[in-house]
Amino acid sequence: MQFLKFTFLYAAIFSFVLSVARPGLAQEDYESEWPCVQRLVNGIPLATVWQGPAIKEFTATWWEDETLPPLVNELLDETLTEEESVDIINGYVETLGKDKDKKLLALFSGLFLRSSELRARQIRGIKEFYRRQIERAERIGLMAKELRKMEQEGVGEESPEYMGLSETLIWNTRIYDERNKLIDYVCEEPVFLEQRLGIQARIILKNIQ
Predict the structure, then answer these.
(1) What's the rounded mean pLDDT across residues 30-40?
(2) How many domains does the chain have?
(3) Which of 185, 42, 49 is nearest to 119 (CA)?
(4) How far is 79 from 76, CA to CA, in rounded Å?
(5) In a domain? residue 35
(6) What angle, 0 to 180 degrees and rounded to 10, lies between the N-to-C axes of helices 183-206 and 82-93?
(7) Whose CA is closest to 134, among 207, 38, 31, 43?
(8) CA 130 to chain CA mean position, Å
(9) Residue 176: which of 133, 128, 141 has the closest Cα?
(10) Is 152 helix (H, G, I), strand (E, B) or coil?
(11) 108-157 pLDDT, tens per residue?
């Protein structure tokens, strides 16, 4: 029972903090919420990863080279090491002829565009993850409020309804805590994506004359 009371107190305090920090927060407003310490940047600024020739002429046509889409997909694999990226890109360079530079610019164009799309999906996923956490915290607060009301009315552990709601509160609080621990990890995904693209951009640039 002591654990239950502690959970109720925690939930009540957390609900109060939410109500003060986000008064009248509407569903659509959650989309602007950002839980990460990293600055919110929806796309990848080209200048942060590329100091080479312009790629504008390749952005709409890079995929027309049938060898590039599967190569881009391979290089987007988040488990790739820097050494593996070097091997893959250098292996591709060995297959190229006089049009090597154009082919490499097309390759980077594909990598940049696909990485930007992936980053946008990651950002949406993080916002949705955080929105669900806020909603769960609000449900926890409402359940705690209902349990306090039941206690004030003399309803306690002898009531199946009271015990059922107590167990639901504990379960939701546990889920909230476990998922909250993942926030730092999911916030790093866009960072790792940009770092990988930057590494691959430098490898490509070294092979451009």
Answers:
(1) 79
(2) 1
(3) 42
(4) 9
(5) no
(6) 30
(7) 31
(8) 10
(9) 133
(10) helix
(11) 999 999 999 999 999 999 999 999 999 999 999 999 999 999 999 888 88
C-alpha–C-alpha distance, residues 109 and 59, integer Å: 5
| 144 CB burial (10 A radius; 0-12, 13-18, 19+) | buried
The angle at the Cα of 31, spanning 113 to 146, to the nearest 5 degrees, equals 145
Residue whose token pair is 């600024």? 45
Range of the domain at 160: 2-14+62-206
Helix, strand, coil percent values for the chain (each to nearest 5): 75, 0, 25
Q: Which of 150, 177, 182 is nearest to 166 (CA)?
A: 150
Please give the pLDDT value at position 32.
Answer: 59
In 94-158, which ranges are continuous DSSP H helix? 100-152
Instruction: Tell me whether residue 26 is in a domain.
Output: no
Whether 55 is covered by a domain: the verdict is no
> Strand, helix or coil at 127?
helix
Amino acid identity, position 132: R
- The answer to whether residues 76 and 118 touch, using CB atoms and an 8 Å cutoff, is yes
Within a domain: 161: yes
**Cα separation, 162 vs 68, whole angstroms:** 61
Distance in angstroms (rounded) separating the CA atoms of residues 170 and 8: 9
How many helices and strands in the chain, by DSSP H and E?
7, 0
